[in-house]
Design goal:
This protein is an alpha+beta fold. The chain has a domain of 90 residues. Helices cover 54% and strands 20% of the residues. A hairpin with a 4-residue loop joins strand 3 and strand 4. It is globular, with a radius of gyration of 24 Å. The two termini are 24 Å apart. The mean pLDDT is 93.
């Protein structure tokens, strides 16, 4: 091990704790200094509330901050502990966001069966219902809809996915939309298939650009449960109360009444199961997630 590495290791333990470990130093010829990335082996304790089994898994959070040394081996402006904690928090947020994307993709078919999801994504249902019955939606049809500007956002979303395509002042089914229709038995199944496709391919867009807060709360609730299973590498049963505490740590204040209602909505759609008094997984969804061989490592950009 190099002298710089040993210095970084001692500095990290003394100032940040023994969970923080240095990577091998690299020399930056442009700035003429050694750079050492710091990572954390972050232990995750998961409790199966039905059996009280306690499972510990480790999440590796890479590059939470850096140490720099000059050619003589002297440290240069080291980050304080607060900066390291900020890097740790950012990496945990990235992990949570990754889980949301993975779980939403894996559960998109089942989420499309949830009544509340149809309510939140009602414009998709309106658009696809019309095209199913009349083969095309004209620009005049769109202008006649209340909140026309908002509907154009949904039109553009479906267009970006090739669900619908423009032509001669109207919108018909694109190649993806036609394929979804051929797989569907009737209008209702077409709508579900389109919603599933949108969730699978564009959930981040729905959350960040379309800003559908109620849909986000439902997705966050679902991710909150499956995060336990991902961290434990197995299906675990959770009490809704303990889940609610974890939810508020990650996403902020939300009443238990609303949280529990989201769990029941998800249970009705078979996204999760409610085996009173515990929440457990839909085994098929967990198998889809497990098949991805998700690495418990996060490497944020510095």
């Amino acid at each position: 091990m190099s002298e710089i590495y040993m210095k970084a290791k001692h500095f990290a333990i003394e100032h940040y704790g023994n969970l923080v470990i240095p990577d091998e130093p690299r020399y930056d010829s442009f700035s003429e200094k050694y750079v050492v990335n710091l990572s954390v082996h972050y232990p995750r304790l998961i409790v199966n509330d039905a059996t009280n089994e306690r499972i510990v898994n480790v999440l590796t959070l890479e590059k939470i901050c850096q140490l720099s040394y000059n050619a003589s081996g002297a440290i240069i402006n080291p980050p304080n502990k607060a900066t390291c904690l900020d890097g740790l928090s950012e990496s945990l947020n990235l992990w949570n966001e990754r889980i949301e994307r993975i779980v939403t993709k894996a559960a998109s078919n089942e989420l499309a069966n949830v009544q509340a999801v149809h309510h939140f994504l009602n414009p998709i249902e309106v658009i696809m219902n019309w095209i199913y019955h009349f083969n095309a939606l004209t620009e005049q049809d769109i202008e006649d809809i209340t909140r026309t500007e908002r509907y154009w956002d949904w039109i553009n979303l479906l267009k970006s996915l090739d669900v619908i395509v423009p032509g001669d002042g109207k919108f018909g089914l694109g190649n993806i939309g036609q394929g979804l229709r051929e797989r569907s038995h009737g209008k209702d199944e077409l709508v579900r298939n389109v919603i599933s496709h949108v969730l699978h391919e564009r959930y981040s867009y729905l959350e960040e650009i379309m800003n559908i807060n109620q849909l986000s709360a439902l997705i966050h609730t679902n991710s909150c449960y499956y995060r336990y299973c991902i961290d434990a590498d197995r299906i675990v049963k959770k009490n809704p109360r303990s889940m609610h505490n974890e939810y508020e740590k990650i996403y902020g204040r939300r009443s238990y009444v609303e949280f529990f209602n989201s769990l029941m909505e998800l249970s009705k759609g078979k996204v999760i199961k409610y085996e009173k008094p515990y929440i457990t997984a839909n085994e098929e969804i967990f198998e889809r997630i497990s098949s991805l061989n998700l690495q418990h490592t996060i490497t944020p950009p510095i």
